[in-house]
Amino acid sequence: MPLPPEQRIKFFVFVIESPSAVDLYHRRSEGDIVRQAVELNGITCVVKTAISLEAFDACLKIGLSEAMNRLPGFVPLLHISAHGDSQGIQLSDGYVMAWRELREHLRPINQALGGSLVVCMSSCEGYSGVQMAMHPEDIALPFYAIIGSGNKPTWAETAVAYATLYHQLCRGEHITIAVNAMQVASGNQMFWVQHAENSRQSYIEYINNNISPEAAQANLEQLVTNESPENQENLKRLR
Questions:
Q1: Domain CATH number, residue 38
Q2: Which of 87, 47, 79, 99 is nearest to 161 (CA)?
Q3: How many domains does the chain have?
Q4: What is the pLDDT of residues 109-145, one digit of tens each?
Q5: Contacts of 2 (CB under 8 A, 6+ apart)
Q6: Can you give the pTM of this predicted structure?
Q7: How far is CA 230 from CA 219, 221, 223, in A?
Q8: For residue 82, what are the domain limits?
């Protein structure tokens, strides 16, 4: 059951959009679509366009701060719209931002929000952004939860999915139920949600269950053993 109104978290949607040259030519703007959808529910939506890395950084550090100052008591949901793949996203000017780099932009934002940042990755294979949390050494995580698609959704699927997500969250639904509704409404079963700590712990468990430090050392020694006599001699001299 949805939470009663008095228990619902107040939030606004902060969109950072980085359209491609083709999108700009055809005047396609996901930010406008998201804003129209969420404002039907009375949710405030702030849309910023970032055509370069400098602009992207400014959106996070300046634009988001200004929006929060105008909306005291409201939690931001960060919606990033850009072309992407399993390796990261691409900005309007062609700059490719790998997940590792995006992680460094998000970590201080999540920390400033007390670890509550929810990131909606609206890009092809945006769910691959879970990689940002797969760093066992990290204490400061890049987000609380990430929502994205595991495939390449169409414009229509994306628009319907995120409009549904924000509608369900506004109704007080749990984030998991809201994402399930995204799948049903869009007809795309590849929209998922993952929490950063779960990704981090799963990755640690994967490493621990698949190879031990002792096994890793043995593997490295085996590599040396398999070298040619000439290379083995070179390796010995280096030691």
A1: 3.40.50.2300
A2: 79
A3: 1
A4: 999 998 889 999 999 999 999 999 988 887 889 999 9
A5: 8, 171, 172, 173
A6: 0.84
A7: 20, 16, 14
A8: 5-238
